[in-house]
Amino acid sequence: MNPTENRVYSESAPPIAALKTVCGETYKFCSVHQAAELLRDVMYLMSRTDSEQEKFVFFKIQSIGSRQIEVFQRAFPTVPWMFVYREPVQVMMSQLEQGTKVSNCVRPRVRPPPAVSDLLLQKGQNAHDVTDEGYCAAHLASISESALEGMKRAPSLGTAVNYEYLPQVLYEQVLPERWNIPVGTVEKERIQKISGLYSKGTLGRHGTFHDDSKRKERLASKQVRQAAEMFLRSSYNELEELREGYKQDTIS
Prior knowledge:
By secondary structure, the chain is mainly α. It is 52% helix and 8% strand.
């Protein structure tokens, strides 16, 4: 876990842009197999280096990329990965904090992807009539459920990580227990230090990370709470069951 040996991409555009632009989100223009080949080529090019020190590369993918987990798994069938999830009300408040009309989880309702439309239909709703809060929750649920499907396909490679337990869960469980990567005092301190920075900053403007979970819970409206329960609670509970299972595996 020496920084000079690792290259990190945080929500870099090329992997998802390649899939959506070339193949389309529903693979209208190419097969899933071809999408996997394309993704593998793009990430290979991003991983090339002329440094003798760099040995590994880590990709933090945008949340929307979770709906393409099957393609990532086809492209890299032996690579371990983690899915970070959050308590339903908190994640919805994070998405909606700039207003429903401009939030990433609501804007696609003009052309809702099939995964979201199917979830809405299951609840007797559709993208045109559901509230903004309801559409946001269905959008987020489509991401969580795709992650769950990916973990069921390869239980030993996909790891469910609850946002609430970061960063401790990384150096206490994910790295040493799930990924078989030794973590010493130096690595632990480095993770703790980096976790104090906001990962979505750009051009060096990372800023200091502040946990605002309690504030989000306090400010959540009735509409947000209802939508979270209707669409997100079941997948959240399944992810929690998986997480608890890792702990039991470690104990046994």
